[in-house]
Write a structure and sequence with these properties.
Helix content is 57%, strand content 9%. The chain has helices spanning 2-33, 36-45, 52-124, 137-144, 155-163, 178-193, 199-209, 225-235, 253-256, 270-278, 297-300, 302-308, 360-364, 390-403, 408-425, 430-446, 451-463, 472-490, 496-507, and strands spanning 214-219, 241-244, 257-260, 265-268, 285-290, 317-319, 332-333, 336-338, 343-350, 367-370. It has 509 residues and is an alpha/beta fold. The strands form three sheets. The protein has a five-stranded parallel β-sheet, with helices on both faces.
């Protein structure tokens, strides 16, 4: 054990002895540089031995040494000043940070006091103080100014109850036929609005009202899709409700609005206001969902798709609020609102990279109408609008379905075509599309068209459109066989829309 201690003493002693020598050497060196008595003794020892020139050199050396010593002293002093200045700055920064933290806490304390005062004001008008964070700037200002909101949560709808309480319906022109309606609508658009539409497009459009509540006008931009829907509102003397769809739309609140728990008010949309107004009269209402596929239709319109498909209009009910208030709108029943039967929904859709593809579930429940070209100008006599009510227009569609039912011969051929499409393309018509064929085709005939053309249009837009989801390279040759089979069933001169669409699919490969 003694050997180990001796080893450690010598081994570590070598290091610490050297370190001590460095420290003491530096200290002795600094003291030696400023040992002025030693400098004086050296000068005294050589005073008698130095001559004239030698004294000049010696004096120069003394001045040079004095300058070096002064420089070292100034360097040390500046370094110390810089060090202490830095320490002071660090201290000042720390004081500023501490002061900022103190002021931040003071601001938080003042805001808390302000919230407490605001909570007391909110409580006075019966609202929930825990939801102050949802309050808008205008609402806060109103509370600070002592303004109280109305207790009605459906302000716009209740206002409609007041305005329409003594409504007297106008004199309607309930003598027009569907064919006259289409002709006059086309002439009205031309003479009064400067819009030119082919009569076939007008018939497709009007007949769609008799088969679907949702109509989709699709095609390239600038072909008059929105103008057609707006012109229809002008023609029936009830302006269309234009609702621009936004890319952020995701649910039903974009259509109807929502209940604000803090303000206890329902944020009513213009669409909801128009829907409620429609319950007070028998006018024909049209809602235009402009650029409907700039957001996903199957998201924000999902509930409406399901409701409007119900055959019984008494089941067209949507829940607006979960409870009942005494001053709720008169046409609300236990917080539920029955959709007006005299309203149709028209969506305009552009087919470009900035929009979403419309899902099959939407197409199946709607009547799509393609508008891919501008109308050719023509001359038309000045034609006034038509004051027609919903019940008469609906009766025209009902009478058309009774007077011009799809012939049994056409139904048999349709069933054969259905079997052919199932066998070769694995796509079936389905009951929903068959119902639309049975309702659209008679209305199209009543509008002045041919039965075969009405069937052709439904098949092209509802059935053969589904081929786009198939492998077009695989079915390209099968399409030739389908066209030949349609020529066999309906004749070469018929089914032009369907054949043209199928040929376009072949060119897409």
């Amino acid at each position: 054990m003694d050997t180990v201690f001796k080893f450690l003493y010598e081994f570590l002693g070598q290091f610490f002895t050297s370190l001590w020598s460095i420290v003491t050497g530096i200290f002795k060196g600094i003291v030696g540089m400023f040992d002025f008595p030693a400098y004086g003794k050296i000068i005294s020892d050589y005073t008698s031995e130095l001559g004239g020139l030698e004294w000049v050199i010696a004096i120069f050396a003394m001045i040079l040494l004095a300058a070096v010593l002064v420089f070292l002293v100034m360097l040390i002093v500046l370094s110390l000043k810089k060090f202490f200045r830095y320490k002071k700055k660090v201290k000042d920064t720390g004081d500023l940070v501490a002061e900022v933290n103190h002021l931040t806490k003071e601001v938080m304390r003042l805001n808390l006091e302000k919230d407490k005062i605001l909570s007391m004001k909110v409580s006075q008008i019966g609202l929930n103080p825990n939801e102050i964070s949802e309050l808008t700037g205008e609402e806060i200002e109103a509370l600070n100014n002592g303004e109280e909101e109305t207790t009605q949560r459906f302000y716009k709808l209740c206002h409609i109850d007041e305005v329409w309480a003594d409504y007297q319906p106008p004199v309607y022109n309930n003598t027009i036929t569907l064919q006259q309606f289409c002709d006059q609508f086309r002439n009205f658009s031309c003479s009064r609005l400067g819009l030119y539409y082919d009569i076939k497009l007008i018939r497709y459009f009007v007949a769609s009202f008799g088969s679907n509540r949702l109509i989709i006008l699709q095609g390239i931009s600038g072909t008059g899709k929105t103008s057609l829907a707006r012109a229809f509102g002008k023609f029936v003397c009830n302006d269309s409700i234009i609702t621009p769809v936004q890319p952020s739309w995701r649910d039903r609140t974009e259509l109807f609005g929502y209940f604000n728990e803090f303000t206890k008010r329902f944020n009513e949309t213009e669409l909801l206001r128009s829907m409620y107004e429609a319950t007070y009269n028998d006018n024909v209402y049209v809602v235009v969902l402009d650029e409907m596929n700039i957001a996903r239709v199957e998201y924000y319109f999902a509930e409406m798709l399901s409701i409007l498909e119900m055959p019984d209009k008494d089941e067209w009910v949507i829940s607006m609020v979960p409870n009942v208030w005494p001053d709720d709108p008169k046409h609300f029943d236990q917080g539920n609102f029955k959709l007006p039967p005299n309203m149709w929904y028209i969506g305009t859709a552009n087919n470009d990279d900035s929009t979403f593809a419309i899902a099959d579930k939407v197409y199946d429940r709607a009547m799509p109408i393609d508008i891919d070209s501008k109308g050719t100008p023509f001359d038309a006599p000045d034609t006034p609008p038509v004051q027609i009510n919903y019940h008469y227009l609906e009766s025209l569609f009902d009478n058309a379905k009774k007077q011009y039912p799809v012939s049994q011969e056409l139904i048999d051929k349709l069933n054969k075509l259905d079997d052919y499409v199932i066998e070769h393309f694995r796509i079936a018509f389905g009951n929903r599309i068959m119902r639309q064929v049975m309702s659209f085709t008679p209305c199209y005939v009543a509008c002045g068209g041919k039965e075969i053309d009405g069937l052709d249009y439904v098949l092209a837009r509802k059935i053969f459109r589904k081929f786009e989801s198939l492998n077009l390279s695989y079915i390209r040759d099968e399409i030739d066989g389908l066209v030949a089979y349609m020529d066999h069933l309906y004749g070469r001169e018929n089914m032009g829309e369907s054949k043209a669409y199928l040929h376009r699919l072949q060119k897409m490969v």
